Amino acid sequence: MRKRGRRTPGVLAVVAAAVLGVAGCDAVGGDSAAPSEKANPSPKPTPLWDRSPGSVAAVGDSITRGFDACDVLSDCPEASWATGASPEVDSLAVRLLGRTGAARRSWNYAVTGARMADLPGQMAQAVRRKPQLVTVMVGANDACRRTPSAMTPVSAFRADFEDSLRSLRKALPKAQVFVASVPNLKRLWSEGRSSPMGKQVWKLGICPSMLGDADALDSAATLRRDTVQKRVEDYNKVLKEVCAEDKRCRYDGGAVYDYRFSTAQLSRWDYFHPSVNGQARLAEIAYRTVTAKKPLT
């Protein structure tokens, strides 16, 4: 192979002139950067969902208060799936903030017996803390009434949930919201009725629309339970739809409703509320949803 000879200054000048002629006069100089200069990279957009929020406020009902998880007929907020300090539960707040951080930067405004109509008031309390994440679990008491006809209408359930999110968004435009689905009450009946003790406790008036006359399998009892179950499904549809309209809201994708819990996850005092074990399972679902790269569907 022949060795290439050195380019003469004249040849280099011709090549340079040709390159400049193709590139145009603005290739070097003027307001444009030289070809060798790299443009500054555009900053990455801030994600709408922060998977590691710095504070947590919880709103909802007795489940979030840990009712009957530790003692009979008593709230046990230390066992709450959302903000509790119990090592056995490893709550969402502890998983996100650490034990010390959870003690300082998590708050529980849930109230035993609360329904969706109570959520706007709880939300108003929560926003005063300016939390970066608000957890919502409510709806079981809307379905657990004396009779199916006394259940909260779906339209009212939707209106109160929308009102709650609007008030949050007005006060804290960037706050994030985790919404848990309403538990499967019919599965609760199916699991709990295997316990003679559970059925005795239910006779005291626990969720009579679903759990009343637990051994009855006639058409009227079946229709009653199916009506309650359909209402729970309608509530979950509302939670999903309303949450989807808010870019900083995440619904659990029906994970709580779909969870196949057993009596081990139910309170040994009422066979209705979650036990400590059940609270831990709820914490796992919440953490998985909050830290997922993409919303669950």
UniProtKB/TrEMBL annotation:
PROSITE patterns in the record: PROKAR_LIPOPROTEIN (PS51257)
Source organism of the structure: Streptomyces massasporeus
GO MF annotation terms: hydrolase activity
Pfam families in alphabetical order: Lipase_GDSL
Domain of life: Bacteria
UniProt region (Disordered), positions on chain: 30-53
SUPFAM superfamilies: SGNH hydrolase
Keyword Phosphoprotein among record annotations: no
Annotated signal sequence range: 1-27
The enzyme's E.C. designation: 3.1.-.-
Record-given protein name: SGNH/GDSL hydrolase family protein
PANTHER family the record matches: GH22081P-RELATED, PHOSPHOLIPASE B, PLB1
InterPro entries, per database record: GDSL, PLB1, SGNH_hydro_sf
Protein keywords: Hydrolase, Signal
Lineage start: Bacteria, Bacillati, Actinomycetota, Actinomycetes, Kitasatosporales
